[in-house]
User: What shape does this take?
Amino acid sequence: MSPDGGRAVGAPVLERQSRSRLRVIDCDVHHALRSPKDLHPYLSRRWREHLDTYGHRHPVPFVGSSPYPKVAPALSRTDSWPPDGGPPGSDLAFLRAQLLDRYNIEYGMLHLLTPQGMDQRNQEFGTAICRAVNEWQYENWTQKERRLKAAIVVPGEDAEAAVAEIEHWAGNPDFVQISMVTHTIEPLGRRRYWPIYEAASRHGLPVGLHTSGFNGHAISGAGWPSYYVEEQHEVALSQQAVVISLVCEGVFELFPSLKVVIVEAGFAWVPSVAWRLDRQWARMREEVPHLTRPPSEYIRKNLWFTTQPVDEPERPEDLRAVLDWLGWDRVLFATDYPHWDMDNPEFAFKCRMTDAERRMVYSGNARAVYGLA
Amino acid sequence: MARHVVATVTEIPPGARKLLTVAGREIGVFNIGGEYFALLNRCPHQGGALCKGPLVGLVTSREPGRFDYSRRGEMLKCPWHGWEYDVRTGQSWCDPDDVKVRLYKVSVEPGEAVARGPFVAETFAVSVEQDYIVVEV
Ligand code: FES
Assistant: This one.
């Protein structure tokens, strides 16, 4: 695809060299299948035929499409289509050049958005898809590029199968977290998901929750929005519901060492959610006696937030106030490459930061959460 | 400031563009209906390669449910977050006073003038029969 609108002549413009020596751990990188058939080698004959015959079926009436128009083809930067073909994120060499090398990325955390095994209505097929995706990630991405780290993708609606998938990969250093979709059948704090949190805690693996999945409900609780500009914001609302559920159901009481990373919802909303929860907790504590501490304490102890899409207040310094409350150790820098709303590590934060704060946000916090060397 | 010869006029027909590096800066030269404009290839928002973005029109609306589409091909949309810039002025649509992309002066010079100089034209064999696009950087 050429966005050049006609004849573009002359020498190709070279990408600028990495100017800063700031080391970056990018906590949200999207790789992609070149073709749905890429999973064939990792599926049994039965599921290969199932995939070819029935395809993926999610709890929404949209097949091969999403409920919202997206702002750009493949949701991506228009300059991220690999020159040798395939969708954005499907070409490792191009991803290396355009992201890892260009921005001095020390590690990139992979989050595959489609296909989602957890979202399949046929749960056995979903379990097979998760395994296939994990094998595909391992062979084609993390083994070929040591800077990339994968998430163990699990069929979270079937906790037993999910735990089996965790047991299969845990201890493999290429997999540094567990991932589930966020638009689930029940809110993610509910009991049915607890065995997954137990396994995650036992293995010391964070659970990375990237906004994704379909559960048949509108993304907001207020009915179906009309425009993508609405949906884009309501992603953060849906992640707020995830945070509230995890806290209020007592997940962090039961699994005090559990680490949860909320991916792609920004973070400036976190203080107001925490303040309101604390206030309600003080009044209604006896309804949730299992919460022995104010909700904000769990939020600042067990949860981390990736920065993208970074909030851009008119007065950039306002963001510092948010980070001061939240704790500079709570946020993990992410680009969301190659998606259209990607943040550039060199320009994403317009507020002042000390060197120590910068190191924490851009790499130190992620190194600690994911236990990276 | 020097005047750089960057292309022959036939190289960039209406609707087309040329990306090049002039004095260490990446610049996009656009032909909008026969007029030439040169912009820095760097979006003031987060540094996206602005001059690789699509040229679009301007959609405006007087009230919900009605829209106008005008200025076809005169707005440059950043390939990253989609901010729109007026190619003629470099101003962003959403914040025209504060967010602007750097514009460079462009002129068209006949071959004889270019041959006489002073111009920077390292990569060109200048012929008097041609007209050239000159950018001041
Ligand atoms: S970098 Fe151009 S719109 Fe953000």
In short: The helical segments of chain B are 111-116. The two ends of chain B are 5 Å apart (CA to CA). The longest strand of chain B covers residues 68-77. The pocket of FE2/S2 (inorganic) cluster is lined by residues B 43, 45-48, 78, 80-81, 83 (CB under 6 Å).
